[in-house]
Automatic annotation (TrEMBL):
Pfam families: Acetyltransf_3 (PF13302). Residues 1-125 form the N-acetyltransferase domain. This is N-acetyltransferase domain-containing protein. InterPro entries: Acyl_CoA_acyltransferase, GNAT_dom. The lineage of its organism: Bacteria, Thermotogati, Deinococcota, Deinococci, Deinococcales. It comes from the Bacteria.
Length: 152
């Protein structure tokens, strides 16, 4: 896993970037939220990835994380669409996608602990996000980040 993160961190170009955010609760890191752009300069689509420590789940933090990263993607970077995936039996993650307005977008196969498992795919279009976007999320320093990510 660490090798994958290091490879992504060292590879920012117009066709591929990934932002890593640590989720803090007080002074404790409790999770992560990533925003991934592949061919963002052309497609204006992003993918989100998140993880929360088991003892922190079921407190609404997953929805807060997703709302914040979607605000950055749509409001800050001008994305037109966001995608997410969750294993079919990850009820909480699938529910967050549903509550945030994502629509089902088929499924796919992945491996989990060396075994095949079904992934549910989700898609959220900008217009659907705008219907429930929040006005209590602020963005700071986004304009300075855009050139580094090759976002115009």
């Amino acid at each position: 896993m660490a090798t994958g993160y290091l490879a992504w961190r060292g590879n920012v170009c117009p066709d591929s970037w990934r932002l890593y955010f640590v989720v803090m609760l007080g002074d404790q890191p409790v999770g992560m939220q990533d925003l991934i752009g592949v061919k963002f300069d052309t497609l204006k689509t992003v993918t989100t990835f998140s993880w929360l420590a088991p003892g922190i789940r079921r407190q609404g933090l997953g929805r807060e994380m997703r709302a914040a990263i979607l605000h950055l993607a749509f409001e800050g970077f001008g994305a037109l669409e966001a995608a997410s995936e969750a294993f079919f039996d990850n009820v909480a993650s699938n529910r967050v996608s549903e509550v945030m307005g994502y629509q089902p977008n088929g499924n796919d196969w992945a491996t989990r602990r060396g075994e095949p498992a079904v992934l549910n795919r989700w898609r959220l279009k900008r217009d659907d996000w705008a219907l429930s976007s929040r006005n209590d999320i602020g963005l700071i320093g986004v304009e300075e980040c855009k050139p580094v990510l090759h976002i115009q």
